[in-house]
Design a protein that fits this description.
The structure is a single chain. With 158 residues, the protein is an alpha+beta fold. The protein has a single domain, classed as 60s Ribosomal Protein L30, Chain: A. The longest helix is centred in the middle third of the chain and has 19 residues. Strand 4, helix 4 and strand 5 form a beta-alpha-beta unit. Strands 1-2-3-6-4-5 form a 6-stranded mixed beta sheet, with helices on one face. The chain contains 4 helices and 6 strands, in the order αβαββαβαββ. The chain is globular, with a radius of gyration of 23 Å. The N and C termini lie far apart (48 Å). 28% of the residues lie in helices and 21% in strands.
């Protein structure tokens, strides 16, 4: 009976947070990843953040590779370049479009939703990620489209 009482006391103390197992497990810190492009490092955000097994990409607009200038050609050209920018960031951080689980698309004009979809669907061959699309009253630098994505991208175990 005394052994049972001691065991019950030890369990109660542990469950109430008074025992030796009250130290929460440490969590890995988020890793804030910057662009290698000097023109893009001037902006006040990381190109991506790794948190656990997820890679969160900042929204990408249709800027020409290595610059802060929009590509000419309207929604189709900007959509293609925005998705190429997403793809490049994923590759740079050890992931691919196959790892994308969620995207959000912001369109300056919802009337261009179909044109955006025509381009978007060419970038995903294995699956389509979950997605939201919404109209915006304005996007950075006068862009027609902005796309942000989340990828499931666990780092290899050492």
């Amino acid at each position: 009976m005394r052994t049972e009482a001691l065991l019950l006391s030890a369990v109660s103390i542990t469950l109430l947070g008074c025992g030796p197992s009250t130290t929460p497990p440490s969590k890995p810190a988020a890793e804030f990843l910057t662009s290698p492009v000097p023109a893009l490092r001037a902006f006040p955000f990381s190109e991506a953040v790794r948190a656990g097994d997820f890679l969160f990409l900042s929204g990408q607009i249709g800027t020409a590779s290595g610059t802060a200038n929009l590509v000419p050609g309207g929604i189709a050209a900007e959509s293609k370049q925005a998705m190429e920018n997403v793809k490049a960031i994923l590759t740079r951080h050890g992931a691919s479009l196959d790892d994308v689980v969620k995207c959000t698309a912001f369109l300056a004009d919802m009337g261009e939703w179909g044109a955006f979809n025509d381009v978007y669907r060419t970038f995903f061959s294995k699956h389509f990620p979950a997605r939201s699309a919404l109209g915006a009253s304005g996007l950075a630098m006068g862009a027609r489209v902005e796309v942000e994505c989340v990828a499931w991208a666990p780092l290899p175990k050492p």
